[in-house]
Design brief:
The N and C termini lie close together (about 10 Å). A hairpin with a 7-residue loop joins strand 16 and strand 17. The strands form seven sheets. A five-stranded mixed sheet has the order 1-17-16-15-14, with no helix packed on it. By secondary structure, the chain is mainly beta. The chain is about 5% helix and about 45% strand. It has a single domain, classed as 7 Propeller (Methylamine Dehydrogenase, Chain H).
Length: about 450
């Protein structure tokens, strides 16, 4: 069963209901976590990976220490971590819509006590990124092609679908929003739209208004004393006086629970299939990622980071009982970024994160995004930073996941060989077709938008 995202809100609703804190946030880090060590007792072949992949050694050492194991580990690959900020590379570490206020600037802040009795999660085990048999596997169906030139790196990209229609939203300038509607078969441009904002744009939502296309900008502002807002469908959640609240069209805010952390950012939502008002959420707090749902039997779950800094999380609800989340993490300042994944069943607690690192695609894994394929599968997208012949290259990658966040089939490249691409976003259309949009760097802080087609069957 495939799902289609509801149409984005009308422009007046966005202006009425959505905003972010007005203070300018520092740059975000939106990478994902590398491999970590398997817990004590794993097969010997899993530990042998440390011998062939030096980038995993220090991360595995940190996890073994956290679990009381003291196996000595040889120091690691650290040069690429320092190099990520050199040249044009740093742009793919930023978040797509809230420029997320980086935890590195406030990782020493203590978290507030929680009234919701959050559950602390164990240090991760490792996901084997090898192929598995499954009913659904995704693969590249149409090669990447550029569709828009000269866009801003921030606030990234947003996609929307309605029936067979697909559109991409982006920022052409600090106060200029743009959108492109694509032909679902060829991904060629069908129509375009632009609009002006009165503040600096933090997100551009493409919207279908009858036969017309609209580009709806969002910008930093406070609405009804609510900050850090996020919308999915007709549901808007936000933070007000250290509480997660539901923001209605009219009337009083609905308080859901007290937030277990003093500082919250990078709020992300995913509609729960089969429900009208409940959503899955995830957000970042100093040194941790939190996730949960607005269902009555659920409470927020805390996943500690490997170190002091974690990347902005993303989440997708496959159905009302199965969620998958992804984010960037690393153990120390000199360690490489990699992806961490978590599967969660609301009301069950005990979430065990897993690291993800395709064995045949070494490098840093950054900027994750998740797309619901059906009620048992998701498509994971990320940016791969690799070094070839002493040169850095960014590549957009994809991998099918099952409802336990385990890889299905092989990882594959989405961006073209001649592209330096990153910050991907995707959306499911009709008949198992996913449209992936991402930024392409042309150097000197110049970025274009490119799209590619992925088929899941």
């Amino acid at each position: 069963m495939l799902s289609h995202s509801p149409p984005p809100p009308q422009a007046n609703e966005v202006a009425e209901r959505i905003g972010l804190k007005s203070k300018p946030p520092p740059p975000d880090i939106n990478p994902l976590s590398t491999d970590f060590p398997p817990p004590p007792g794993v097969p010997a072949e899993a530990r042998d990976e440390e011998k062939t992949d030096p980038s995993m050694r220090r991360i595995r050492e940190a996890e073994r220490k956290a679990q009381g194991e003291t196996k000595p580990v040889v120091p690691l690959w650290g040069a690429i971590a320092a190099v990520v900020a050199v040249g044009g590379g740093v742009y793919f570490l930023s978040n797509s819509d809230d420029h997320a206020k980086g935890d590195e600037a406030r990782s020493d802040r203590p978290a507030a006590s929680a009234s919701a009795s959050p559950v602390a999660l164990p240090v991760a085990s490792t996901v084997d990124a090898g192929p598995k048999d499954a009913a659904v596997v995704c693969h590249l169906a149409s090669s990447a092609r550029p569709i828009v030139e000269n866009v801003l790196k921030d606030p990234g990209l947003e996609l929307a679908t309605e029936g067979s229609r697909i559109a991409v939203g982006f920022a052409k300038g600090a106060k200029e929003a743009g959108a492109v509607e694509l032909d679902p078969a060829s991904l060629a441009t069908k129509s375009t739209a632009t609009s002006k904002a009165t503040g600096t744009i933090t997100r551009v939502v493409p919207a279908f208004q009858g036969d017309a296309l609209a580009a709806l900008p969002e910008f930093p502002r406070m609405t009804k004393d609510v900050a850090v807002q996020r919308r999915v469908g007709d549901v808007v959640l936000g933070v007000a006086k250290n509480k997660l609240v539901r923001v209605p069209n009219e009337g009083a805010l609905e308080e859901l629970f007290t937030l277990p952390a003093a500082t919250v950012d990078a709020l992300r939502l995913s509609a729960l299939p089969g429900t009208k008002t409940d959503v899955a959420y995830t957000y970042r707090a100093p040194g941790a990622v939190w996730l949960g749902t607005t269902q009555k039997n659920d409470s927020p779950q805390r996943i500690p980071g490997l170190g002091a800094t974690v990347g902005s999380p993303t989440i997708v609800a496959l159905d009302s009982k199965h969620l998958v989340a992804a984010w960037a993490d690393k153990a120390g300042a000199e360690d490489p970024w990699g992806l961490r994944l978590a599967a969660y069943s609301p009301g069950k607690g005990n979430v065990s994160p897993k690291s993800f690192a395709p064995k045949d695609k070494p490098g840093m894994l950054l900027s994750p995004a998740l797309v619901r394929v059906d009620d048992a599968h998701a498509l994971l997208l990320w940016t791969l930073l690799k070094t070839e012949n002493e040169e850095q290259k960014f590549e957009v990658m994809a991998q099918t996941l099952d409802d336990k966040a385990a890889p299905v089939g092989e990882a594959f490249s989405v961006s073209a060989a001649d592209m330096s691409g990153g910050q991907p976003q995707g959306i499911m259309g009709e008949q198992g077709h996913v449209t992936v949009a991402f930024l392409v760097s042309r150097g000197n802080d110049v970025f274009d938008v490119a799209v590619a087609g992925v088929e899941c069957k």
